[in-house]
Amino acid sequence: MLPAPVAAAPELSARDIDQALHAAWAQQAIEPSSRVDDATFLRRAWLDLAGVVPPPDTVVRFAGDRSPDKRRAAVAEILAGPRWAEHWANVWERLLLGPLVKIPVVDRDAFHEWMRSALASNLPYDQLVYQLVTATGRNQSDDDDEPVNGAVNWLLRFRGVPEDLAGTTSRVFLGVQIQCAQCHDHKTEKWKQQDFQKFAACFMRAQTVPLDGPMMKGLKRALVRDIDRPLPRFMKDNDLALIGRATPTALDGTPMVDGSAAGGTSQTAKGTVRASVAAWITTNPSFAREAVNRVWAHFLGRGFVDPIDDIRPSNPSEAPEIEAALAKDFTEKHYDLKHLMRTVALSRAYGLSTVPATGQDPKTSPVLWSRFRAKPLGPNELLDAVFDATAVDDALRRLGRFNVEELTERLRTLYGFVFDVDEEFDRPTFEGTITQALIGLNGRLVAGGSTALPGTAVARVARSEMTDAQKVEALYLRTLGRKPSADELGTWTKYLANPPALAETEPPKPPPAQKKPAGPFRPKNPNDPLARVGERIPETRDPKIAAVEDLMWTLLNSSEFVLNH
To answer: For residues 59 and 39, is the Cβ–Cβ distance under 8 A?
Structure first.
């Protein structure tokens, strides 16, 4: 007799989350904010899922869609497009490789491509992490066509500090800050120094073999492979020798001898300690919980547990039932990241307005996600938003005097330093910094992007046959992902129709005590990646075109542009 077929696990829906949150709000007499309008939802979803502002034609099409399920369709469209994998490869690269600091053996491009390809194929999250932790092979390609495994570049970042690799692995993939016990027993939690040493011992047998000589300049080739003992050079260091002599052990006390220690799953490569600990990590209950907490925090501004990588009994979840249900569903759906993100993005909490309901204090954190938290764009998102809105990179290519790819890399470094916001810590409001404001107000990127250089969006709009109202609408769609309100349209249409003399040109209602830099934006900072570009930006002599430039400059410096609200 054939066994009865196993029924598929019921799918957790956004409605299930909504019901649980509604009950929690009712229990605490919380009035949630109202539902956000469609244009704001679409911009929010595109920024969180794809890292870019929605294209203008998508905004217009979405606004004209009258189907009741159009938000679900919009989320599905983003998840099916290429920008989702590209954006989340950026997210994971920033998290795992850190700031854009060049390390001789770390090929960030190879890592990014490996991560992008894994996400594009919807590789289950447990397999993705398993492959990261156990990665072996070459870090980059060359002319001999040897296969490359971009995942090894994450391990190469920690090639001389296995204790940091252990701490990062535990924190990022399990939400356990075991690194606190590196130097002494944890004062408030159960972790002892020996626990850290035993866990770190799991990561001391990955050997880096240089493939280029010491005199080789630039990015160096390397091979990562496993050996059956701690690296000899680690055993010559007094502190690392203590870790090397420890028995490789998981955080729950399970010895990590080979792949069979974790139960012999199909993805276990027997014979290496790293394979054993990778299988243990990806089958541990905290693995799904940390992933759910991280995704929830990314979309809603605060995780169930805050900080998002500090899951412990003394730091309880704010909504344990919802968190547990999402973690269970994530596991049963074979760690499908797209499914998890779709569920969260379609929940009522994600679709709430940032405007407080009656009785809510706007200066305090919303209780139980009863309103949406405005979040600053990350450095990559902000830079890409400026490029997409202005097309200034296309204009620079047309000039033919600059290496645009090199300029972009330097700008990413600058923006990463100035605009990187640690989303592991909750903030009820975002006020920005003086440096961030100056980069926007006086930086060459915003200045060049809001100048009618040939090839920029401003040039195309300003010199088009559009009416003034159509020009205003076109720039609003490109920057803010929405059409202007009636008041905004009236103000700017009047401004474009009657531009002031160039000597008096000033955008209406600029930020307090700030004015648009006059003239051709001569460079003052020699470290500005666009300094030489600024020298070649010509002055605009046509008041009508200058007025369009003012509009673009004002939009790029608005809080609405730099926030996902």
So the answer is: yes
